[in-house]
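User: Could you write out the 3D structure of this protein bound to adenosine-5'-triphosphate? I've included everything you need below.
Assistant: Certainly. Input first, then the structure.
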Amino acid sequence: MTDSDTGKKAERHKRRMQQRKEIVDAGVAKALEERGIAILYTGDGKGKTTAAMGTVTRALGYGYRVVVGQFIKGAWECGEKNLLTGLPAEQFSLQWFEMGTDFTWETQDFEADKAAALALWEKLSAALADESVYLVVLDELTYALNYKWLDRDAVITAIENRPREQTVIITGRGAKQYLKGIADTVTEMRAEKHAFEKGVAARKGIEW
Ligand code: ATP
Ligand code: MG
C-alpha cells in the first residue's frame, strides 16, 4: 500500500467516524427524559439473570439502594448472591429475597408454590412502592406469572405505578406480550447454541 492509499484510507475512516458521531450526538440530544425504566430480559438463551445481576453491581457501585427478588423454588445457591449479600451494609444497601426454601421443584404442590410466590411478591411490591429504592430485580418473574401464582393485573399495576426514578428489571423465559408492552427496554436472549445440549454440565461459578 502506498502512502497515498494509507492517507486516503485514514481520511475515509475519519469521515465515517465523524458521521457516526453526529448520529450518536443527535440521538443523545433527543434523549432528554430523566426517569427510571422497566427492562425485560427474556428468551431461551443464556444471560438473562447475569445481565440483571450486572446491573445490580452498577447501581450498588454508585451507592443506590437495590432490592432483588428471585422467583425460583428451593434453596438456590448462586455466586452473585454469595458476593453481593456479603457486602458491608454500611456502604451498600441491598436486600435479597427468595421464594420460601421449603418449596422445591420436587414438590408439585400448586397451593404451596403460590403461597411462597405471594409471600415474596408482598416484599417486592413494597419495594416497588418505595421511593428510596433505585433498582428492583424481579428475577424469573415470568414463571410466577405463567404458572398463575401471581395476579397479572396486580403485577402490572405495581410496575407501572412505581416511583418515577425507580428502575425495574424482569427476567425469565417466555415473557408474554403484556410484559413486553409495559417494558421500555426488551432484550430477547436467543439461544444459538448452549453447552448443555452437548452434554456439558452446568458449572459452578459460571451457570450459578
Ligand atoms: P444465566 O443465569 O446464566 O444468566 P439465564 O438467566 O438466561 O442464565 P435461565 O433461563 O434462568 O437462564 O436458566 C437457568 C439456568 O439454565 C442457568 O444455569 C443457565 O445458564 C442455564 N441456561 C440458560 N439458557 C440455557 C439453554 N438454552 N439451555 C440450557 N441451559 C440454559
Ligand atoms: Mg435466569
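The CA atoms of residues 42 and 173 lie 5 Å apart.
User: Perfect, thank you.
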